[in-house]
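Run log, item B.
One chain of 108 residues. Sequence copied directly from the ordering sheet:
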Amino acid sequence: MANNNVTGSPLEKTSLASLDQRLAMAKRCSREGVIAGAKAAVLAGIATAIPTLASARMLPWARTNFNHSAQALIISTVAGAAYFIVADKTVLATARRNSFEQVHNTEA
């Protein structure tokens, strides 16, 4: 037997328009994360490549220990880590911001 006195949360809408709106918001969040992550990866790659390549050319220890594969591994690891960290933080921040906007819009 259903209890008709229980009211649902305003965030638990199940209409088709609401689901489309949520899907569009999720796509926008992920797109913003991808763009921010790509920018961070480019910057981190450049910031890592300059000292890595310079040290591999100038320092005797680095010259003997950093072959081309090691240099590429260092640069790509830093760029990949920057991408995933920034993309994750951006997606979470955007989702949090949208969540607060949804709550404020439903209360008004």
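Observations after the first pass:
- The first helix runs from residue 16 to 58.
- The chain has a mean pLDDT of 85.
Flagged for discussion on Thursday.
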